[in-house]
Write a structure and sequence with these properties.
595 residues, mainly alpha
Length: 595
């Protein structure tokens, strides 16, 4: 009788697996809504001996792989799996895929662990559809997927922003008898937090408490860190207190996340208290914890306090790293004390800490802000001599600095040098160049650059078109500005409040009050969120074109929206009130906007 029951259970499991395989293969890849039927007791565990092999380079791993293929007979799939694990840890995921295909071509069948590695690589390559196809293959070969398989798929869905699908797969996984582990929960919590759904992540934490796997420090850290990033400090502190009450000890990551947020919110005393509490609990602050405080102090100009933190960390036997020194340098540069920042740089070098691109870029930015552009260029050349490759931020900083001191030609030469050295400009680079080309009325060069961008792989954003349209309007080329404005929709862009404001200003400059008024109404109708700049500029346009009544109506609306007259509008109103020829009733109406 017992034997018959076992046979029936075995047949039932085979039938369920067959059903799941059919569901997978009929779609080419597994839909997250298909049946996931396995016996409730099915759990996934790795081989106890499935450790990865260690290689210094990918070439070494590939050489080993090719050597293994030449062996007769070839090693077992376990050995190949160890090698693939090593390559996966080196983040060469496309290589894992190609080597898996090569194993297939040699007739070496994978096991479930090999296929899990392949699933993971596809997910890292943002091809979760292929990852689900691997799940279909797992089932076809008669293997049982486990929590690792499904956790990997859930992570892949979250990486592609498909958190809804990840939730659906998670629910199906539980419904069909698979037991998620702590890693599964933490993965889904992280995905939910990344899309701003922290409340759902907390709900998942609560459901986890009701199950077999109790939340651990990783689960709490995932939510606390994201609450901190969203500046929901009270909620983060509540969870922090809860985990301590439940006997879950916070670790260095927990404390650092909260301390970082406390510093950003200028809760200095609370941050210091937490730092001391951390030490009392035998959780020793590391260089990241201290650097977090140094950086926060420097950003609000508390250089003395930042130095005190550095002294404390040195007293505790923790040496500052490049990030610590860079934070100090940045603090000085924010106060335009570049010479002091240089002293920190020299001290860093003296201590044997090698400056990186970020360190040099901070000093270059400091020199550019104080218009000591030659020193900035010298540092740039020095970092190149040190075999450091400047990044796009370094180039943007220098190009901005050169433009600011009106060395536009040098900025363009640097721009071309940037491209020739393989560093592709980003949208910020182009905004800097367009801003200075248009402000200095080099419209032909600006248009040539715009055409070059449009013909490349990079699509200019609306901010770049705003700069060009504004430059055309200021140069009096209203027709060209109008053509570009009305051509935006064909480029898949929509005018924003800055685009409309630039055009309205150009129309007022030409005395085209009716068209400017019409465009202002269109801006409101199209749902643009009007700001004080839009109101003030339009009101001035009406006043300068003797449309006082319309200006008063608009200024009344502006005040009702909570905005006030800016400096330029106030100056114009004062001038008009000083005009003896202006009607007294009009003066009385205008004077209320100066109160």
């Amino acid at each position: 009788m017992k034997m018959n029951m076992k046979m029936k259970a075995k047949m039932k499991m085979k039938m369920k697996t067959k059903m799941l395989w059919r569901a997978c293969s009929s779609h080419g890849s597994l839909s997250v809504s298909c049946m996931l039927s396995v016996p409730p007791s099915s759990h996934y565990t790795f081989h106890s001996n499935s450790k990865s092999q260690n290689f210094d380079t990918l070439d070494e791993a590939l050489s080993c792989f090719n050597g293994m293929l030449c062996m007769h007979p070839p090693p077992s799939i376990v050995d190949f799996t160890k090698l693939l694990t090593s390559i996966s840890k080196m983040k060469h995921h496309s290589t894992v895929v190609s080597l898996s295909q090569k194993l297939d071509s040699f007739g070496i069948l994978p096991d479930v662990y090999t296929l899990n590695i392949l699933t993971n690589s596809f997910c890292h390559l943002n091809r979760v559809d292929f990852a689900f196809s691997v799940l279909a293959r797992i089932l076809k070969l008669g293997f049982q997927p486990g929590s690792v398989t499904f956790t990997t798929l859930i992570r892949g869905l979250c990486l592609e922003g498909k958190v809804g699908d990840a939730l659906h797969l998670f629910d199906k996984m539980i419904k069909e008898g698979f037991q998620p582990n702590v890693v599964t929960y933490a993965t889904l919590m992280n995905g939910l937090c990344k899309v701003g759904n922290t409340s759902a992540a907390i709900g998942l934490l609560r459901s986890m408490e009701e199950g077999n796997d109790q939340p651990n420090v990783v689960a709490y850290n995932t939510i606390i860190d994201n609450l901190c990033k969203d500046r929901q400090l009270n909620e983060a502190l509540n969870l922090f207190s809860e985990m301590i009450t439940k006997g879950i000890s916070p670790n260095i990551f927990t404390y650092t996340s909260i301390i970082h947020t406390l510093c950003n919110l200028c809760e200095w005393e609370h941050a210091k208290t937490l730092l001391n509490e951390m030490v009392d609990r035998n959780v020793m602050p590391n260089v990241v914890t201290f650097t977090t405080m140094v950086d926060a102090f420097c950003k609000v100009g508390k250089i003395t306090e930042a130095h005190d933190v550095v002294k404390t960390m040195i007293q505790r036997g923790i040496e500052p790293d490049a990030f610590t020194y860079s934070a100090l340098m940045d603090g000085y540069c924010l106060q335009s004390k570049t010479d002091e920042a240089v002293k920190v740089f020299d001290m860093m070098v003296h201590k044997g800490c090698v400056p990186d691109v970020y360190s040099y870029s901070i000093l270059i930015n400091g020199y550019c802000k104080t218009q000591r552009i030659d020193k900035a260029m010298y540092l740039f050349e020095e970092m190149c001599r040190q075999k450091l490759i400047p990044d796009v931020v370094t180039y943007n900083t220098l190009i901005q600095g050169l433009c600011h001191v009106k060395r536009l030609q040098d900025a363009i030469v640097l721009f071309h040098g940037m491209v020739s050295h393989g560093q592709m400009p980003d949208i910020v680079t182009y905004r800097i160049l367009f801003n200075y080309l248009c402000k200095n009325r080099h419209l032909d060069e600006a248009m040539n650059l715009l055409k070059a961008i449009e013909s490349s792989n990079m699509d200019p954003d609306v901010q770049i078109y705003n700069i060009v349209i504004d430059g055309m309007c200021r140069a009096g080329d209203l027709e060209a500005a109008r053509d570009l404005f009305f051509d935006l929709s064909s480029k898949g862009l929509h005018p924003n409040v800055r685009t409309y404001t630039a055009m309205i200003n150009g129309l007022f400059r030409q005395g085209l009050v009716v068209e400017a008024s019409k465009l202002f109404r269109e801006m409101k109708k199209n749902g643009c969120s009007l700001d004080d700049c839009a109101y003030n500029l339009t009101a001035r346009g009406f006043l300068q074109n003797n449309e006082t009544l319309q200006a008063i109506q608009l200024l009344d609306e502006m005040l009702a929206k909570g905005f006030s007259a800016d400096v330029s509008t106030t100056t114009l109103l004062v001038e008009m009130l000083s005009d003896d020829k202006l009607d007294q009733s009009v003066k009385q109406n205008l004077s209320k906007f100066l109160l």
